[in-house]
Automatic annotation (TrEMBL):
It comes from Asaccharospora irregularis DSM 2635. PROSITE patterns: THUMP. Keywords: ATP-binding, Cytoplasm, Nucleotide-binding, RNA-binding, Thiamine biosynthesis, Transferase, tRNA-binding. This is Probable tRNA sulfurtransferase. Its main location: cytoplasm. The gene is thiI.
Amino acid sequence: MYNVLIVKYGEIGVKGKNRYIFENKLIKNIKNMLKPIGTFKVYKEYGRIYVDLEDYEYEEVIEEVKKVFGIVGVCPGVRAEKDYDKLKELALKMLEEKIEEGAKSFKVESRRGDKSFRLTSQEMSLDIGGYLVSQVKDRIKVDVRNPEIKIKCELRESHIMVYSDTVPGYGGLPLGTNGKAMSLLSGGIDSPVATWMVAKRGMEIEAIHFHSYPFTSEKSQEKVRDLAKILSKYCGRIKLHKVNIVEIQKAIGLNCREEETTIISRRFMMRIAQRVAEKRFCDALVTGESIGQVASQTIQGLTCTNASVTLPVFRPLIAMDKSDIVSLAEKIGTFETSIIPEEDCCSVFSPKKPVTKPRLERIEKSETELDVEKLIQDAIDNIEVEDIEF
Ligand code: ATP
Ligand code: MG
């Protein structure tokens, strides 16, 4: 029955000139999201966005469209050539379907886009409602105050449309309306979820990954690339900065206490991420840290990590339980890739017994044994950059 989707989006940040930019971005993002299914006609009309369904299953298409940030709902609808009697017929067909699904009460809501039409919107509702009641008799009752379902009828300049249900979207804010963040992307479960959450609030994303090639494999970098690719479905193109930190890890291993190696390498990652972020005009860093999840994420560990940088660090998972993070990872589609077993740079050089309550003064003292500036600069000089697009 359905041949079109009506996309509803939030009004925040889409006033005036921004609206035009936002809608075009939204259209591009919807097309991108639908790429794995097929090529769709996505277009703007009368201040709304539509997706033509062609012969595709509407459920399958909605499932993808609703993931686009900034979309609050998607309605499957029927669109046809302008013809008022046909409109009534389609409304009846939709109502019959709703009755079959068990609906007990309804109301008609109409919109007259074609101002030359003889009936006003209100009159249309009365007329169509009356017709529907005469056809379905007492199989369903009218309830204008609190109807279980609404049959929405529109008569436009060139076409008619009927729809009823709204499938909720993920919400969020239009991409690129809130600056840019540099996300520390590992191959784990957490950082892709953290990245997604920040992007959902309208931040553009760049990613930085630290590896210890040749101690970590090519494959482990492939995995991060795959994760970035899944994320780019939501966030648009992602610039991925890949940093080799083998020399840093060796220097730490030679000069610092074994139990401090993780926390000190983490501080190096943050410093490097900040340098790259500033060069790329990013406003914040993002990590997938969560209080107490591992030894380096105790409050003392987080304090030491945090103290290595001045940019704001966003940790959207900070108070989330692992099981909730996993559910979200499954929902956004990164989980399957994240759990592929690959060596991470942290696991390669990780101490047997890491400190769980590092003291900042002690860590800073240990770092005086290192030529921090040179190590950072050498790592930055060898960064490789890739553009990842879905
Ligand atoms: P994740 O699942 O995101 O890897 P985790 O639970 O394994 O997180 P840690 O390994 O302690 O936790 O890492 C904490 C955070 O530090 C990560 O969420 C990520 O933001 C950042 N991070 C860790 N390792 C790397 C890496 N190799 N490259 C980039 N960022 C990293
Ligand atoms: Mg990790």
